[in-house]
Amino acid sequence: MNRRVAFPFLTLSDAAVDASPWSVALDGGEWLPAGDFLPDWDYASTIRLRRQLRIDREIASADLGISANELSLSLGLRLGTGQGKTAPSPGASGRSRDPRC
Question: What is the DSSP string of 25-57?
Fold first, then answer.
């Protein structure tokens, strides 16, 4: 499972989460495996995503140090366009202030 380290927050181990691959449907079409980009997409397209997750409650509770009865699930999804680079802040010249660079 692809994730970023979020120290100091506790995260679930790979053993706790079984995630199916992403599927995508464009404009009500058939479900297809999601790839690195979506051909034939434009801003007016309707995009549907799906994936199945299975959480092993015992492993998850051990990973988080709480009882299985205290577990709750909250999901978030971040999407973006382009190459994932952020724009420089206003007024930034793009030059490093570090004299070693």
Answer: EETT---EE--SS-TT--TT--EEEE--EEE-H
> What is the Cα–Cα distance from 20 to 6, expressed in whole angstroms?
22
pLDDT tens-digit map of 1-57: 555 666 677 888 999 999 999 999 999 999 999 988 888 888 899 999 999 999 999
How crowded is residue 16: how many other Cβ atoms within 10 Å of its Cβ? 19
Q: For residue 52, give the nearest of 18, 86, 15 by alpha carbon.
A: 18
Torsion of CA 78, 6, 51, 32, to 10 degrees: 60
Structure tokens at 19: 């995630």
